[in-house]
# Entry
Amino acid sequence: MSTRPLTEGLAVRTHPVAPREKRPDTERLYSMVFQEICDRYGKKYSWDVKSLVMGKKALDAAEIIIQVLQLPMSKEELVEESQTKLRQVFSQASLLPGAPLPVPRTASVHWGVEKLIHHLRKHNIPCAVATSSGTASFEEKTSQHQEFFSLFHHVVLGDDPEVRSGKPSPDIFLACAKRFSPTPPLDKCLVFEDAPNGVEAALAAGMQVVMVPDANLNRDLTRNATMLLSSLQDFQPELFGLPPYQ
# Structure
């Protein structure tokens, strides 16, 4: 897909930050916790399963996991157990570079993400966070990174009243765009994503989307993105009509 200049400004949405919460090392922790639960039943929380639930709200994701893997529990039970385990490990979360890595990083902020967000702020280009995480989960995952998250204009969470349907519904991106002042045209909003459901949601909202997927994700699930990058470090703002890095 070709890029379109964002000449009227840009709403950068990161899931929850460029991409996915800038992002605390939560994907590895999610996988670890769900595999631990699946191990009891001899099931594998594979990337084929994970790709179906990335970007989904918790209950929606739990329902898919249970159906695909035939787990003998309710979606409410899976959410409760997984959230309890995740609360115990979120304190280990560290910020990652512009694409997911299989191991945690000790550095608090990676230059690729920090560089992008400060570059946008320098040029008065507003950016926000839109994440399927609920309030409690988001606060736990970002508690050690408040300074970074203060750089964003606003945050829209998965349990926000305006987000009636999770991804691939566009609800969360539409709600996020509305809260900028003035509200930008939807085709002037650029989304950074790592999840196929998030890419579809952004496109459904009429926005452009840069995808920075995990190396384990099936490449067939990355084809619809406006632009595909292996790392956020490779992002060139000028390709979207934005001021180039100096």
Summary: The two ends are 27 Å apart (CA to CA). Confidence is low (pLDDT under 50) at residues 7-24, 95-109. DSSP finds nine helices and six strands in the chain. The longest strand covers residues 189-193.
